[in-house]
Design a protein that fits this description.
- The protein is mainly alpha-helical.
- Helix content is about 65%, strand content about 5%.
Length: about 270
């Protein structure tokens, strides 16, 4: 069963910060890395993210278990660039017919893979340390987001684990009816596409029923809603956002300086 509940120690220094502050810090630290193609900047960012991980109360094993889809993305980027990259500059390392691997290709692939990890890890850390209900409350109170949007997003976020269960149930039901691809890769691809379509149809139907039920319970009313749990944005939360901005600026500055002095050192 897939879980989206927080897995961090609740008393960790950064885990108990305001959810809006954690989301803002993650966005500031991640989006600034999109300004450079140098692999040095995302490498420094990953080192910083792993260094502050204990402050969020997350174990490295738990992070690896949650971030495994990033490994698939990295493998896909590497294979795609090796096969279809237009820039084949640098020293040739492997020449096997249509597959030509050079140092330029590997450097480009390394930069993109590191950037994927550096941009995605803050989001993984934030949502692994934040309760969805607290996030919805913070969006309403601190960001002044519409209650309809925040509570709807909370309901959708709560339904995410059902996708994995639905996929398993559809697959088992089809296998029980004798629908199995066996060892045929083409049949497996077709079965995957049909299962994904069935999952999409079920998700749309469930979302429609949920929207009608929420409207029937007054979630679409224009009257102001009361707040049961206060989410305060304190000075420590502002310092978290400022610290993320400072670290991002320091990372970019180090990358720029390294790129400036690299030709002098070579």
């Amino acid at each position: 069963m897939i879980s989206i509940e927080p897995v961090a120690a609740p008393d960790a220094p950064l885990a108990r910060r305001n959810p809006v502050a954690k989301v803002a810090a993650a966005m500031v630290f991640s989006f600034t890395l999109l300004a450079t193609l140098d692999p040095l900047a995302p490498a420094i960012a990953i080192a910083i993210e792993l260094a502050v991980l204990p402050l969020f109360g997350i174990r490295y094993r738990v992070l690896a278990r949650r971030a495994w889809p990033l490994l698939l993305s990295a493998a896909g980027i590497l294979v795609t660039l090796v096969l279809f990259a237009a820039d084949r500059s640098g020293q040739v390392l492997l020449d096997a017919g249509p597959v030509l691997v050079s140092t330029g290709v590997l450097l480009t692939a390394l930069g993109l893979v590191l950037r994927v990890f550096a941009v995605a890890l803050p989001g993984v850390i934030v949502f692994a340390t934040t309760d969805p209900t607290d996030l919805a409350d913070a969006l309403i109170q601190n960001v002044r987001a519409p209650a309809r949007f925040a509570i709807g997003a909370l309901a959708a976020f709560r339904l995410v684990p059902l996708l994995g269960q639905e996929w398993q149930m559809i697959s088992m039901a089809r296998r029980a009816r004798g629908v199995d691809a066996g060892h045929n890769p083409v049949a497996k691809l077709r079965l995957f596409a049909s299962t994904a379509f069935a999952l999409l149809v079920g998700a749309i139907r469930r979302g429609t029923r949920l929207a009608v039920a929420m409207d029937a319970r007054g979630f679409d009313a224009g009257t102001p809603r009361t707040v049961a749990r206060r989410q305060r944005f304190t000075r420590a939360d502002a310092l978290l956002v400022a610290g993320a901005l400072t670290l991002a600026a320091a990372t970019l500055t180090t990358s720029v300086l390294a790129g400036t002095f690299r030709p002098l050192l070579s």
